Amino acid sequence: MSTILLFDAGNTNTKLCLADDQGLGEAYTLPTRPANTADDWGLKIASILRREEVDPQEVEACVISSVVPPLDPLIKGMADRFLGCEAVFVPRDLPLDLENEYARPEQVGADILAGCFSARMTYDEENLIVIDFGTATTLACVQGTAFKGGLICPGVLSSASALAGGTAKLPKVDLTVKSDALVWGTSTDECLNQGFVFGFASMVDGLVEKLSRHLDNPFVVATGGLARTIAQVSETIDELRPDLVMEGLWMAYFNR
């Protein structure tokens, strides 16, 4: 049974997951710090492998979606020294069966393409919108087997951090969903909570509605760290798939 190590390297965090031809294992999240060394990453990976009781020599390949170029040689160096395996980057080394109709295809994030590929392989609907709640909130449009383009919006946590850093009296935002119905806040904490949770849900609902004028009756899939929170109050998200990018990497490798 082939074992691979999946990396979803984002601007804020890097998500890792062991997988085999039967599916995904447990996921781990580490902060993305490109200034760290390949050895630092290797020691962290070694700790995860020990916890999972996997011998480093059992790892056949590292399959990577990365939007942080300085991190790429570190992962490659780690794979070579600590695991003795190849580092395969999507879509550069492992093409995805998805047409990229972006004006400048090289500018599309690997995570967006992997998520769209996974959604395309999973759902039968002709038109898809894949929403990723990461450092930025992105909406990617898929029609048939083609990635058509999308939208890039502020991220939930990055917006909360910017607000807290730019004000003297506003506390940290609690993003727990208190109720599925919007009410006005009667304290600063409640105002922030309702504003962020329902504000971002309304943003994506409104954008999906407008995109639907160009993409008829789309099926909407949400992924990313804050997807579960926003999906609870969104009126347009049809399904929640927190590991959509990982699933895309897994499908690309074992279906190649």
From TrEMBL:
UniProt: substrate binding residues: 102, 109-112, 188
Cofactors that this protein relies on: K(+); NH4(+)
Superkingdom of origin organism: Bacteria
Positions with a binding annotation for K(+): 132
Principal place of residence: cytoplasm
EC number(s) recorded for this UniProt protein: 2.7.1.33
HAMAP family membership: Pantothen_kinase_3 (MF_01274)
Subunit structure: Homodimer.
UniProt protein name: Type III pantothenate kinase
Naturally occurring in which organism (per UniProt): Pseudodesulfovibrio portus
